[in-house]
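Q: Focus on the shape:
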Amino acid sequence: MENQYNYYNPEGSNGNYQYGGPQMNQSYEPPKKEKKPHKKMPKAVAVTGLALLFGVVSSATFLTSNIIGSRILGLETSSGSSEPAKTVSNGTALSTSTSVVTSDVSDIVEKVMPSIVSITNMSVEEVQSFFGGVTQQKSESAGTGIIIGQNDTELLIVTNNHVVEGSDTLTVTFDDGNSLEANIKGTDSEYDVAVIAVPLDSISDDTMDAITIATLGDSSALKVGEPAIAIGNALGYGQSVTTGVISALNRSVSEKDGLTGETVESDAKLIQTDAAINPGNSGGALVNASGEVIGINSSKLVGETVEGVGYAIPISDVSDLIQNLMNQETKTRVPEAQQGALGITGVNTDDVISQQLDVPQGVYVYEVTPGGGAAAAGMTRGCIITAINGSRVDSMDALQEQLEYYAVGDTVTLTIQIPQTNGEYKETTLDVTLGVKQAD
């Protein structure tokens, strides 16, 4: 770049001095040499130079700090561009940037959703009025189920026991929106698991083409921190999806007994997740990143004062139980006038009593009615009934509900615990032919 500054030159353009005046009859005096003025640097140049020097020093300091931070402290700077997609061990694609990590689970949901159903439980409850009378009141509750298989005549669905208990009518709504009635095959109140069935001849070909059977995973191989996806009929509004991680494994949950108010520690070892599980999600699927069902969600186990904590029943822990319930005879409710009776008077041995008295949980036989079916089968006072035809019962209400599926003259197999002289109980089975209900 050309110099922007022009300096004054007293020597002229050719560098020769000029002498003036007459040259004769005068003594020669050499011309006085003019002093050259000092060339002073303009202020603008000085300021510019200092600025450049400061910039060089600052840049060097900044670069040195970055090098020290990166090499010694292990820090790195980001160019601001997105990093390449990473894959975790289970194959879920993650898109990462400098500040946000997102996980797209739409492919997993698309795979699993056709195996999920909504369940509507219509029941009739007896309500005592203010004046002492009793009226019947219809109630409706919502839940979720997972299609787990089919036999020659039925499509089989697993859900929570509390989703279907007390039902007069069960309605299943499939992924394509088609709704059909279902019947109960088997229930287990202790593990809160039930299997229901929809007759295949009631399902249209279009619906059969739209649904799939869920793939069950191995919940015993889970690790804390793995992705978890909860799918279910949250709040009864239809199927929805929430995501999170496996927060903990083998959790025991404390529940408050509805009658005594005492806190009872559950024996079940549950999966804890931060994926939201709300009422209506019960019986739905907790799936892994491969779209395999690893747990059955239960909103019953979610505390009202706790946020960000949900629980699911590990699928591997109840797979044998589910298989047993699938193989039971499908139950159809018998008209009340035709329902049979065992011929006993029983009281509950619930969680609290079971733990306090160290007795099995079920129905304690307080009295055996002379001439009834239980007496004829040899049942004695002090036995504890724990199951009927393979369906576990933990209360008198649960036993009465199961008896609604059997008529007078039907024979049922009871699983009972007989007290021994050493204070322990011995399990056995007893076949009882049901008799007529006694009038209240």
Q: What stands out?
A: The two ends are 115 Å apart (CA to CA).
